[in-house]
Design a protein that fits this description.
This protein has about 300 residues and is an alpha/beta fold. The chain folds into two domains: about 5-200, Vaccinia Virus protein VP39 (Rossmann fold); about 205-305, no CATH class. About 35% of the residues lie in helices and about 20% in strands. It contains eleven helices and eleven strands. Strands 3-2-1-4-5-7-6 form a seven-stranded mixed β-sheet, sandwiched between helices. A four-stranded mixed β-sheet has the order 8-11-9-10. Strand 9 and strand 10 (about 280-285) form a beta hairpin. The chain is elongated and about 75 Å long. The protein starts with 15 loop residues before the first helix and ends with a strand. The model has no long low-confidence stretch (mean pLDDT about 95).
Length: about 300
């Protein structure tokens, strides 16, 4: 078995296995071109992607080349992340690599358009995997999974394609890629791809949304270095809530918005915003305004129908 920290070939000297896999449609760039890329939209310029179990981040680099606005790779192997980071920085890529247990990462992860798990999900325990899939409903619009033939272990999630459909039975099953011919391939294997859509998340353009909460100037003032309580919004809240909240409560509220702004700038939105049937934001007005301030023209919402 190939050592995990050299599982993905990026550049430099090649092992005999690297040479075989270089021209295979089942490994590396070939895997991306044949089992992932055909299921991605043509225009990815507004979209975000997380590669779970990214190894050294080869697919992150390819996703950035494809045009995704933001790309994050997550893996728990320190050597693979180190190797990938060196490659990323040397070649001027902007994607982010995160050293983290892939099962735990989701709780603190941003909401994204695509989550890809490329030959990774069947290393989860079955219990952790089912919890993970449930959480993904409100974290990712689409989930793309590449799987293979794998000897079944009862305590782990199954690699079997039919079990995948069962795991995602509450999701909309979209396109898939079936097994390709192995004939003449220098490093053949059996692979399948499945693409699922969350039943509750959509990306919505900001134009036309009904919203009556506007603090854009607040974030402009923060960017200029104005103290939070001395901003126009800080003074307004101090006046508006003067009879309901104590001075400490008012300050905690304003500083909470500062913290939210800082978190979104660093990590993105962790929860989807919520729209009602009249296209009015009923939860997430501050996040919506921050996203607009940061130049976003659309966002990921959960619609209450």
């Amino acid at each position: 078995m190939k050592p995990y920290n050299v599982y993905q070939y990026l550049e430099g000297s090649m092992s005999e296995r690297d040479i075989r896999e270089k021209d295979s449609k089942f490994w590396g760039i070939g895997k991306w071109n044949n089992f992932i890329l055909p299921l991605l939209p043509e225009d990815c310029s507004e979209l975000t992607l997380v590669d779970v179990g990214c190894n050294a981040g080869l697919h992150c680099a390819l996703a950035e080349k494809k045009g995704f606005k933001k790309v994050i790779g997550v893996d728990s192997d320190a050597e693979a992340i180190k190797k990938g980071t060196e490659f990323k920085e040397k070649n001027g890529y902007k994607y982010e690599l995160v050293l983290e247990n892939i099962e735990k990462y989701l709780d603190d992860a941003p909401v994204v358009d695509y989550t890809i798990l490329i030959n990774a999900h069947y290393y989860f325990t079955i219990s952790a995997w089912l919890d993970y899939v449930d959480k993904l409903k409100s974290k990712s619009r689409y989930v793309l999974i590449v799987t293979t033939k794998q000897k079944s272990k009862t305590h782990l999630a199954s690699a079997d394609i039919h079990y995948l459909d069962e795991y995602f039975k509450d999701w909309e099953k979209l396109d898939g890629i079936e097994v390709m011919s192995e004939e003449g391939d220098p490093s053949p294997r059996k692979l399948w791809t499945r693409l699922y859509k969350s039943p509750i998340l959509d990306r919505v353009q900001f134009d036309g949304l009904a919203n009556f909460n506007d603090q854009k100037e607040f974030y402009k003032e923060l960017d200029k270095g104005v103290a939070p309580m001395k901003t126009v919004y800080g003074k307004y809240i101090k006046w508006y809530r003067r009879n309901q909240w104590t001075p400490n409560e008012i300050e905690d509220f304003i500083l909470g918005k500062v913290k939210l702004y800082d978190n979104i700038k660093r990590k993105g939105l962790k929860k989807p915003m919520i729209l009602n049937r009249k296209n009015k934001i009923v939860d997430g007005s501050h996040r919506y305004i921050i996203a607009q301030h940061l130049g976003e023209t659309s966002g990921i919402f959960r619609k209450v129908r």
